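INPUT
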Amino acid sequence: MIRYFQAAALFLCGLLCVATAACANDSITVFGDNIRIQNVAETDWAISTAGKSNSYNSNFQNCTAHSQRGCGLSTNGNSWNLMAYRLDTMIGFRLRQSQADALGLDSVEAFVHSRFWSDVAPYVDGSLPAINAEGFRQRYAGNGWAAQVAEHEYEWDAAEAYVDLHRGPLWMRLGKQQIVYGEELGIQTLDQVDSLDFRRHSLFNYSGLEFSDARIGEWTARTTYDASNLLAPLHQDNAQISTWISPDFQPDVFLPGGSPYKANPAYFVLENGNGISRARHKLVYGAVLESKMFDVDWSLNFYSTPEHVGWTKYIAAPLIGGAPDPTVFPIDNFRGAQILGAGNGYHEAIVTREMPRINIYGGMASYTIDPVYHFPGSILLNGDQIKASVAYTPGKAFTGPNTLNLASPDVNKPLKVGEINMALDLERDVRWIEGLPSAYLFLEYNFRSRSDLFDDYLAQPAYGNHHNFNLAVIGITQPLASNKWTLVWVQSVEGNAGGSIFEQPAVLYKPDSHQEYRVFWNFATGTNKSYLGPSRYMDEIVFAAIYKF
Amino acid sequence: MHIIRYGEGWTRRHFLSQMGKGVLAAGVLSPLIDVIGRNGDCSAAYPPELLSIEAYTKGKLKPGDVLTADNVDLVKDLLDEVAYWQVKNDKREINLIATETDVSKLIAKPYLEATLRNRGVHQVGPDGNVWTKDGKPWIGGNPFPDAKNAVELLLQNALTSSTLYYDSTSCASKEWETNADGDVDYTYEYIFVGYRTVGRTTLEPKPYFPGHEGQLRINSSLFTSPEDLSGNSSLEIWSYDQHKLPKAHAFSPQTKRIRSVPDYARFETGVPGAAWFSSDSAGAGDPVYTWGNFKVVGHGPFLAATHGNCHFGYPNWEVPLVGGKNGKKYFRTYMELVPEGYVVELEPTGYPNSPYSKKRAWFDARTGIAPLIVTYDREGKPFHQSEWFYDYAVKKPGMEWPEGMPDEFWASYLNMHMFDMKSGRMSRMGILPRITGGYINSIDDPKLYYEFCTLNAIRRLGR
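OUTPUT
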């Protein structure tokens, strides 16, 4: 049934995409209803500047050719990281007012975002292996809800597809949608409803896009009630109550082995089947109350969801009578490694993920300091925006120090512990000189008490036995005259396992309404066990050209 | 005949005399508001040379003539220096029309009625804000139809703002950004909504929207084109207190969520190519007391597009263009001789790094509307100019009439220019019958609040 639904949804997307050829970037009225179609064609070229090959893709085996044993997914010597082409088509529909009135509603609107993406880098750079998207991209039985086709180096999906029904203070959105809360940027403290799909680009896409293209929209029924008039006597402005439920849990989707951006050894095969098939029967639901009181924006958030990353285990008991289980460690001369000891052949390790339910309790407060103070040093405070977000997840399950340790009695068992996730943001606009538009300055601190942003549990020797995760991000965006050119610089610094740094300077150019160009450099330093260090294998210059029609 | 009684130069001397005494009293022959209160016509307040461009120029120009570089010097003293430069040096042409004396065709009728009804029940409190005699927020109309100083002119403008002489408006707008030659390099479509929370004269409940008495108005905007901006929506809540900056929230398709955003950046261009700042959008443009050193620096007639600019008869409401190097830089606009106006000057005392040294707003004494604003850079040279083009729209055959609107009404927003004198860039903008996404214009629609003016709304409208 779900397959039929998926096929129908994709057929509809295709039909509407074809229609765009005639009606692109236009708004047409049919029998009083309005249809809006907008397209974006984009290409992203990422050229490696790492000067070293990604050791996770079997390159530690000194691969010189893909035909070499264990080197099937090697990226040794690659010049390209990505040569992606994509077409996004956004279709909006607005029912004529008389029909909406006849339905007893103030407005009825629908929106579909069709997304086609392809990476042809393996076909232009012989050092990159051709990756079978279907086989290695973790598709699993039952993800027909994803409204997605992924074959070899392309994928086509409905990023969003929903209907909005609105009457007075009540609004319902039904369909595939992203649900996002929180004021933090680039990290996920309260933005923990939807999982992320990392396949379409580098882990560090252009910073300004944040997670919008990676976040997985889920089929959801969401209802929001505007309580601003109701709660006004309590000195609350703009009070909103939202709740949602989704039967469509989607886990984080990681890059396949052989991707230049892979950050796990290629010999690990992530078999999603068992873990996700159990999790997918579970619901994602939550509620948020948000308001403003005495000029402080605040929210209270509650989410209940299967874990997005989950904890990792072998697909079966890894040892049988003290010997490696061949179903867990099958021989694989293509992508395997000598993980069972030199001379014992090339094996892969098949793991899966469990995604137990977690409940997330959180909240946010945000305040803008009016630029009215005149005491010495007030220039540092005037106009500052201070935003604090915090979330607590009791009993979160992690891949612990012994979960994948063959010799441990705790092998294949998770480590469960509560985690605090907190973010502090300081933002402001600064006009350096009168002739230049204001720069946007951004300083952010993220604290997580147990794991990093990929839920890697930190209190284990490999990570330096340091269970706190501290990340600082500084960013500056400086538009130039008329906002045609924009300069952006973002730096992230964290302190685990020797520390690591990531930098992304970027230049944006928008010569007219149809064209946009971006150039940015992703540069990282650090060790493999640090949060940002593995990205040093992925240092790159990215050129993006975007055309809207 | 007034011509005999008030000879050549009399009106000029009258205005100079009043300026010299520091006295503002609208109306030359009789108090203006009393004259308007009789039958809505302002003729009796002015001598003929203030009611006719032909009389004012002694027949050298008349309604129907076109101002060009060849004849603009005849009315140099009636134009701001930027408009004069545009006509003299950038091939702009301006059509002259007769002065409208029926004030009910120069302002929203409910607003005018409230102005007359509520005369004298206001007070300016110790906090500088406008209150009723019993200390409540203002109840509607212009509290200062006979404004005595610059602050009163700015306060009445702040209470209404240039697009909100109605209780609510939605403007389905398109904006063309041109370079100095007039070539368009960016276009944007968006709907802008204003919703009044106090001083309501039409929408129930009135005069206040319960629970929002501490607010002045709520503004909302939604971009629908081009694609990269489509789905950007914002909400701006203005405090009644004219010392406080508005609070703003924005939904961005990039972050897919609402974030509170600073609204103190009043001197930034919001989108690539734009030639205007947030601060340029009304007489004060910002809360009145974030500016200072208010003074009236001019008093007398001026040329402005206060009526005659209805564009509903043009295909898709797109106004013919004129001027600039390519002949397509400026809207063809129709201006009348405004018989009496005030030029108010103010300085950005609350913004230490403002690129402006001062702003001048031209107020029409008949209505309190400011159809023209010029700002000056730190060296005192003209920087930005904003011009609003108004009309009393009357339905005629062949017009694409705005959906749901009565057969005649005063349009609080039709088109406007926002011009950057330094770069020569121009932002032309105006309403269309319907913009991308199917959004249309409306006036006093009670549904606009939940449709556009809540956090819930900007999250729903954002994509």
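end of record. Residues 337 and 343 of chain A are 11 Å apart (CA to CA).
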